[in-house]
Every structure is written in structure tokens, then in C-alpha cells.
Amino acid sequence: MRWTNFFLIAAVVAALGVAATQFSSNDYYFFAAYVVLQYVVLATAWNILGGYAGYVNFGSAAFFAAGAYSTVVVHKLYPLPLPLLIVFSGIVAGLIGFGTGYLTLRLRGVFFAIATLALAVVLQTLIINWDFVGGSRGAYIIRPHTFPLLGSYMKYMFLVMLGLAIVAVSVARLIERSWLGYGLAAIRDDEFAAEASGVPTLRLKLVATAVSGAFMGMAGSPFPYIIGYVEPSSTFNLAYAVNAIAMPMIGGTSTWIGPVIGAILLGTIQQVATVTISSAVNLLIVGLVLVAFVIIAPNGLVGLAQSWMRKRK
Predict the structure, then answer these.
(1) Which residues of 250-284 are buried (b: 16+ CB within 10 A; e: fewer)?
(2) CA distance 92 to 297
(3) Domain boundaries of the chain, sorted by first residue
(4) Computed over its alpha carbons, how large is the radius of gyration of the chain?
(5) What are phi and psi of 45, to 5 degrees?
(6) SS3 (DSSP) at 219
(7) How far apart are CA 87 and CA 99, in angstroms?
(8) Residue 206: CB atoms within 10 Å
(9) 77-115 pLDDT, tens per residue?
(10) Which of 19, 209, 230, 236 could pair with 101 as two cysteines, CB 3.0-4.6 Å apart?
(11) What's the rounded Cα separation, in Å, for the pair 69 and 193?
């Protein structure tokens, strides 16, 4: 897909999102769409490091929580408009990602995965003992009920997350087709060979970790405004870490479109299950779908489609 076609599709999606806010008054639809778009950003962010470079990150919830609590800190000091809060949270989470990567990216395989999991534990312990952001008690965040021209503030949050999702997917696509993406692919295929060929592996991994962490933090930044109450158990929820990994694997980790497909598919199924059955079955659904795809389509839906097209030729 050429860039002109990509931006045309993105513009159409954005226009449809704006039009939806004018023709529907049911806030739940926008909440459900917001959650799906949030997972699009999370899955895309995870794939920048986990898919392109092959470094499995189990600390997605830590970066998500870092973005959420950055919003809490700024809200207590001096409330800013939501887009500025998202940018600030992205900077904080990106710096955390860079620092974490500098300390852990010399590790490989399961050792790196364990290190990222330890990051979530350490950061959660820090938040639990930080009284300024509510500690283990949590913190209340009062957001506006309305927004000019749109009416409901939930519609505004939906549009902001839609814009963030478009930006995240655009950056992932740009990375995939740039020298950075080619270098990360070389690392994923054979890191020792990439180093021997002169690829600056550590530098590329640090950039990928910082960008991935930044977008995860941005995805978590509006979270306090969604529910009005933030506590460690909700922001460091296992569902964020599991979904961030499962969605790219279901869609396909080799390309930018895979996480988008996986997030829309799995996110929509979870929202339907939440309404019709219970939110408690969401992780069960993720597990069952992931096992099914590992058996039927180990390379995800994109890999399955590519394999089918090759057979047709």
C-alpha cells in the first residue's frame, strides 16, 4: 500500500469517526470504540519491539500505568488539556523505556522477558508507596462532563484516541519501511549476524524500546478520565500485558497491519462478551483464541492470508 493510499484511508477513518459523534448519542458505543482503539495503540506499540525486533516485552502494563499516573500527577499540579497530557505521558513512558532498555537490552530471550516483568513489579511497588498519587488507596480524577460542539466528553476522548491510533499506526508503518525497520528485522532474524554485519543493534533496540514505551504510555494517559478513579490494581492489570502480546500474534507480527487486525478482532469480541456474558471471561477468550491461532495460523491472520495468496499463484 502506497503512502497516498494509506493517508487517504486514515483520513476516511477519521472523517467517519467525527461523523459518528454527530449522529449517535449513546456514550457506550464511544466507550467501547475507545477501548478497542486503546488496544490498537497498545498492540502496535508492543509490536515495534516485540514483532519487529523479536524482543518479547511482558512489561506493557507498567508503561500503560506510567502514562496513567503521569496524568494523575499533572492533574494534581496543574490540569492540562488531554492532548498535552498524552504528550507528557508519552515523554515520561518513553524515558522509562529508554532507561529500561539501556539496563536490560543486553539480555536476550527469556532473560529480557523476565526483566521487563520485573519492571512492572518494581513500578507497581513504587506507586503503591507514593502517597501523592494516592498510593494503594487510589486517586479520584474529576473530568469535565461535556465538551464544546460534541456535547459528551466521552465523544471527545474517543476522537482523541482515534487520532492517537492513527498516529501510532503511521509511525509503526514508517519504522517498518525505514532503515530502522530493516535493522530491527535483521536483529529478529539473527542478532549475532546483524552485529557482525555492522548493524548498531543496541542503538536500534534502544530507539525501538523508547518509541514502544512512549506509545504505551500515551495509550494509558487518558485512563484516569475514563473511570474517574485510579488505583494500582486497575492500571497494572494483567489484561493489558496479555492483550498487548496476544493481539499482534493473532493479527501477525511481521507487518504494521497485523496488530491493528488483531486488536480490532479481539477487542471487539471482548466488548461483546463484556455486555452479553461478563468482563471476567475476557482473559479466557484471549487464551482460547490465542491457542487456536498458534495451532491453525502460527504467523497470524496476515501470515495466513499471505500463505493462501502464494498458493493461489
Answers:
(1) bbbbbbbbbbbbbbbbbbeebbebbeeeeeeebbe
(2) 37
(3) 3-244
(4) 19
(5) -65, -45
(6) helix
(7) 18
(8) 18
(9) 888 888 999 999 999 999 999 998 888 877 777 788 888
(10) 209
(11) 40
